[in-house]
Fold these 3 entries.
Entry 1:
Amino acid sequence: MFTNQYKIRIIGKNPRTFFKYLLKLKINLYQVEMFSDYLEIVISKEDYTKLKKMKTSYQMEVIDRFGLVKFSYFLNEKKYFITSVFISFFLLFFLSRLIFSVEIEHSNQKLSQYVLTELEKKGVKKWHFQLTNEKKENIVNQMLVENKNLLEWLELDRIGTKYIVRFEERKKIDIKEEGNPQNIVARKDGIIYFIEASKGEVVSKKNAYVKKGDILITGLIKNQEEEMARVRAEGKVIAETWYQTTVEMPLYYKEEYLTGEKKKVFTIRFLSNSYHLFDKNTYRASQSKNLFSITHDFLPLSLSFSEEYEVNRIEEIYTKESALIKAEELASEKLLKSLGENSEIISQKVLKIQEKESKIIVDLFFKVHEDITAGEEIPTNEEPKQE
C-alpha cells in the first residue's frame, strides 16, 4: 500500500494554516488527519526531504515509516544488534563445526593408539572441522582395507563436537610371537580345494571335507610315533564353502545420492518469492543445509545463507526378470565384500523367489572358494620327548 513514505506529525498553532501552505507548495498528501493543535500527514520520501529544508516555527516529528525507508531505518537502528547476531551465528557455526576431542573405546591400548594415529593422518583429529558423511565413510572403508589383518570393523560416531571411535580387533588364533609352535586349523567347514605348507606337515588333502577347528597342517614333527620337534606351522588352505542369503529387490527402484558438488547460496525471501544472489548455475535437484538466517516478526522479508548439495536422482522400473538379475548382482557384491580378498564365487543358485508388495524376495545359495587358514597354539603342558 505504501512505498517509501513517511507519516509526519506537525505541531503548532492553527495547523490548518500550515496545511494550506503545503497545498500551495504542491506537496502530495496521501493521508491527512487534522486535530486542534497538530496535523498528521503521509508524504513521499522526496516531499519529506523538502519539508526538512523548510524554515518554520512548526515542529515536525516522524511517527512512522513505510516501505523500504522503514526497512532502512530498522537496519540503521539495529545495526549493532544485527552485527552482533551475524558474529554470534558465525562463531556458533564455526565452533559447532570443530572437533574438540577424539576418544577411542577399546581395551587394547596399543592398538587404540595405532588406530588414533592412522585416523589423525586422514584428518580425524582435534581442532579440525567435522567430516561429511561421505568423507567419514571413505575413511572408515580405507582404514578397514589398509588394516584388514588388524580390524574386523570400525565405527566413527560424532556426538556433538566429539568423535567416538569404536572398533573390533580381528581375532587371530595364530600366535604373534615368533617361535611359538602352532597348528594350522580350519576356520570354518568346507571342502579343501588347495593346501600348501611352508612350515609343518600337511595332514589333510585336496577334496577332503573338514570341520571348523580340524588340524590341516600340524606343527608337531614326528618320526613314526616319536615326537621330534614343535614348530610354528605356516601355510595356506583354500576351501569350498557355502552361503545362503536373502535379498529384497523393489520392482520400482528410486535412489537419491549426493554427487559431491556443493556451493554456498545467499537467499533473500520476500513474501512467497525466493531470490538466489550470485548463483548462476542452479542444480537440477539439491539438498540444502541452512547455516544462518535472519527474519523479522513484522516484515515479510528474510535473509539466509545456506550450503547447497547437488543430488542425483535415479528412477528405474524393473520387470521380474531384470529385478532378479539385479538382486543376484547385489547379493554377489555384498557377499564378496564381506569375505574380502582371495575369495571367489564359483557358483550360485536361486532357491526361491517370492513376489510381495511390489518387490521380489530372492533366496540364493552360493559356493565360494575362500581362505580358511587359521592358527592355533599347540598346548605347552606336554614337553617334547627327548632322544
Note: The helical segments are 15-24, 45-53, 68-77, 79-96, 109-121, 133-146, 320-339.
Entry 2:
Amino acid sequence: MKNQPESPKMVEEILQIARAIGELATRPMRFMEVCGTHTMSIFRHGLRSLLPKTLELVSGPGCPVCVTSQEDIDRMIAFSLKEEVIVATFGDLVRVPGSRTSLAEARASGARVEIVYSPASALEIARQNPDKQVVFLGVGFETTAPTVAATILEADARDIQNLSVFSTHKVMPPALDALFRGQELGIDGLLCPGHVSAIIGARAYEKICQEFNIPCVVAGFEPEDILRGVFHLVRQKVKGVARVENVYERAVTWEGNQNACALMEKVFEKRDARWRGLGTIKGSGLAIRDDFSHLNAERRFDITVPETREKKGCLCGEIIRARALPLDCSLFGRVCTPTSPVGPCMVSSEGTCSAYYRYGGHA
C-alpha cells in the first residue's frame, strides 16, 4: 500500500476493513466513487490493491474542472483576451485546453490571468486595479459555490464596480440522476462525495437511491473512511437493500449546512447547464440572480465564441460517464500527458486520467 499511514493501529484497522470487504464481496460488484478527491485518494494510498478482484471502482462526474463544457472553457478564454479584463481563476483551469488555445497560452501572449486560492482574492485584485475589469471564473459544485456567493454579496455591499463573476457552478444530484436515467451503467452503488455532502447533506441522495434502487454511502477521504464506505456498499448489496448511509458523520449531517445553502439560494438560482460528456442537464447549474446582475460577467460583457471543437480522440466525456477508463484512450500517456494535456481529466488535480498517470506507473 503506497503512502501507508504511520500509525500501526490505523494500518491494522484499514487491513481489517479490507479483509471484511473481501469476505463479503464474493461476487462481482461495481461501485462509482463520485468525487475526484476520492479517486485521487484511492490511487494515492493504493487502496485498489487491498480490495478483492471481484470489486471494481470507477470514477464519476465529480471533478468540477473535468465536467466544465468545452464551450464554457472557450468563453473563459474569451474573457481573458479582452484588453480591459483581468481573469482571476483557480489554478486547475489555467492549463485546460479550449477549442483553439488555453488560459495558459493566452497569459503567455500577454493576457492578465491571475491564479487565486479564494474568490475573495478577486476582490483585492479589483481594488488594486481600478482601471481594469476583474472577472472571477466560478467553477465547482456546492462546495465552492457558497464562498463565491459570499464574495458576490461582499462586492455588492462594498459597491465594487470593476468585479464580476462568470458562474459555471453546478449541483451534483441532477447530474447523478441524468447519469442513471435511460442508460445501463452496471453500477451497484455510489460512494458519495464528502465535501459536497457537507453542504447539501446526506438526505440529498434519497431520491436517487429510491428511484434507481442504488445504495448510496457518504464517506470521507482518508483510507479508513473510503474502505469503510466501500464496506457499507458491499453489505447493502449482499443484503439486497438500497439506502443512504452516512459514514462521514464528523463532517456531514443528514440535513447539511443550512447557512451555506441559504447563502447559495440568496445569490444563485437553478438553471440548465452544459456538462462535458453529459450534455445539458435541466436545473443542474447555478446562475447569478437578477438582483446581482451588475456582478454577472455574462451580463456585463458581450462574449461570443467560434464553434466549439472537441479534442479529437479524447475520451474525457466517456470517462466521466464511467463508459471508459483512461487506459482505453489511445492518447493516454502518449499524446496526452500532464505536461501536454489534451483533455481536462489529465489536467485537474481531481481528474481520473491524472490519477491513473501519477499513480499507475506512468510518471
Note: Residues 1-312 form a domain with the Rossmann fold fold (CATH 3.40.50.11750).
Entry 3:
Amino acid sequence: MRRTHFSALSTAWTVAVAVFFLLAGCDGSSPTEPPPSEDLREVGVVLNSVEETLTIFDVDAPHDDRRTVELQLGGDGSPVGLSTRAGLALVPMGVFPAAQVVDLETAQVVRTITLPEGSGATGSTFLTDSTALVANPGLGTVSHVNVWQGTAEDEVAVGLYPQGFVHAGGTVFVIDAQLENFAPVGPGRLVALDPGTLEVIGEVVLSGENPGSAVAADDGRVFVLNGGRWGADNGSLSVVDPVQLEETGHHMGFGDLPGRLTLAGGLLHASSWSFGVIAWDPDSGSFHRGLDNPIQPGGVASTAGLGVDSEGRLYTVFPDCEGPSRVLRMDEAYEVDEEIPVGICPAGISFIMVADP
C-alpha cells in the first residue's frame, strides 16, 4: 500500500534540520550477534525520538508481537539512536546527559546511566556484553559505561564532534564529524581506539565532511558516509583500510545530507530525508540506484533510517513526525512487502536475537 503525508513530511523535514547531525549516531555498530537457536528469536527495535519510546517487534510476526517501552525522562531528552547487544538496548538521551538501558526481553527500562554535564550524548556501541561507549559530541569525548552496573567510568578525548562508531579489524573507530555549531570546520576523521585499553592508536583523515555513519564489510574494508554541508549536495563515501589506517577511496554523488549507511544484498544503501535511498555497488565502485533513480519507500522520496535483519532484508524508517509512523520492509525489487506500526518520529532501528519467552 502506498500513501504520502505531505504535511507530515514538512514537519519531518523541519525536525531533520534540527537533529540531522545527531542522527548519524543511531546506527550503533556492534560486534556480530550470536546465531539463532531454538531458544532465541529475532526482534527489531525502533527508537521513536519525539515520544521517547522504543517499539519492539518480532521480525517473523511483527503485527502479533509488538511492544512499546516508555523511556523514563519525562520528555527532557532528545534521543536519536540506540545500540543493542545481549538482550539489552542502550539509548543515549541527547541534550539530557544520560543513557538508558532497556531489557528487551521484559520490555522495561532497567537502569539510567548519568553522563557528564553537557555531553549531548548521541551515538553508542557495545564493547562487551556489559560495557559500551557513548559519544559526547558536546565535549569531544566518549564515555566508557557499564550497562549492568549503570555507571559511567572513563572519558576519552577523541576529537571535536564524535557522533558514531564502527568496529573493524579488532579496533573500534570513533566517527568524528568535526562540527562547530552543527557546521563542518574541516574534513571528518575516524579515531582508532584499542577496545581493551581505550587508548587512541591512530586516526584516518577523510576527504569528505561531516561523516556520521559507517559499516565494515566482510572483505575488511570500512565504508564511511559523509553527510557534507546543508544545501551543498556534497554527500560522499569514503573507503578506509582499518589496518593501514588510511583512506583508499573517495566517491561523490551521495546527495544532500545522507545520514544512514547499511549493507544489504551485497550493496551499500544510503538514506536521506531529502531523496529516500540510493544503492552503491562496492565491488564495481558504481551506483546500482543513484540520485537519478532513487528508491522511494512507500512512494515517498524521504527516509529517516535503515536497518537489515539476519535474513538480509532491508527495512526503511518512514519519516512521520506528526503522528504514529511505520517501518517499511522491502523486497529484492525495493517494493514494500510489510508495514510495521511504530511511534512518532522514528529515528533509528536495530536488530537483535533475544531469548524466547
Note: Residues 6-355 form a domain with the Methylamine Dehydrogenase; Chain H fold (CATH 2.130.10.10).
